[in-house]
Amino acid sequence: MIEIPEAAVLVDQINKTLVGKVIHSVIANHSPHKFAWFAGDPTNYEALLAGTVVEQAVTYGGMVEIQVEHARIMVHEGIILRYYEMNEKLPKKHQLLIEFEDASVITASVQMYGGICCFKEGEYDNKYYLIAQEKPSPLSEQFDDQYFQRIIADDMLQKKSVKALLATEQRIPGLGNGVLQDILYNAKIHPKRKVETLTTTEKDLLFESIKRTLLEMMLHGGRDTEKDLFGHYGGYKTQVSKKTVNLPCEICGGKIVKKAYMGGSIYYCEGCQPE
User: What is the per-residue pLDDT for 10?
Assistant: First the structure.
């Protein structure tokens, strides 16, 4: 899944690789997928994009937006975005394929579910997109301790779990179930802990872990469970994930466990993160 660090890495790679390229042709919905979400009619994407020049890429939370003349290409959630040089073998299945005039290609393919949205500038009114544009990224200076403390002090959140606090309702766009595992591991807080049970010290540790963990993930090219624009896994070694479940914790030797919770999975150390 594209979350904050992966989005930042993809945007950096797109800006270094695609800026200035002219779009030659577009194929949308080549391999229909019931969990591929499009903005408007995908058959109109070629008319919208062909002949335009890639200007820059930006990220809003976990959304990656490629800006071209008067239009936008935005992907999010479980979209696999890949770049191919001329004559490289392309995937047989994809939900979006953009060929440039130099014969290089990017494809977007759905893994589980995800959104591929091409639209005229200023004409996409999806609420999640608009919220993600408004709220500061944890990687920015605007996301400071004061800002976070206002979020966590909300009376409506006190009975909710820390996982619910961090990864639902777009309170922190782009911070999802994937990155929250290591954030909570580094803060030594169990995902099921109620917000009201956190001490002042734990709240401070949580804020620091959000900032530090996401920055480390980004600086290492994303998590080792996700791939970048060129199909390479990130260099950040996840501490609690599908790659470490049932292994001993590197800090205390306790077992890394996986459990179902809130419609997904949580990973944590039995020793470092007592429930």
Answer: 98
Same fold, 4-134 and 145-269: no
In whole angstroms, give the CA distance from residue 97 to residue 104: 11
Closest CA to 255 of 244, 269, 267: 269
Class of domain 4-134: alpha beta
Token pair for residue 267?
């990973």
Strand 36-38 to 54-60 pairing: unpaired
Which CATH fold would you assign to the domain 145-269?
Helicase, Ruva Protein; domain 3 (1.10.8)
Residues 6+ apart with CB under 8 A from 151: 157, 165, 171, 172
- Measuring CA to CA, how many Å separate 105 from each of 46, 83, 86, 184? 14, 6, 7, 38
What type of residue sits at position 226?
Answer: E
Q: pLDDT per residue over 36-72, tens digit each? A: 999 999 999 999 999 999 999 999 999 999 999 999 9
State whether residue 172 is helix, strand or coil: coil
Q: Which residues make beta-bridge pairs with 120? A: 71
Rounded distance between C-alpha atoms, residue 257 and residue 3, angstroms: 22
Q: Quote the pLDDT of residue 274.
A: 92
Question: CA–CA separation, 202 vs 114, rounded Å?
Answer: 34
Element spanning 56, H or E: strand 54-60
E strand or H helix at 217: helix 200-219
Measured between alpha carbons, how far is 32 from 233 in angstroms, rounded to an integer? 26
Cβ-based neighbours of 42, under 8 Å, separated by 6 or more: 28, 29, 96, 116, 118
Domain boundaries, the chain: 4-134, 145-269
Burial of 201 (0-12, 13-18, 19+ CB in 10 A): exposed
For position 44, what pLDDT does the model report? 97
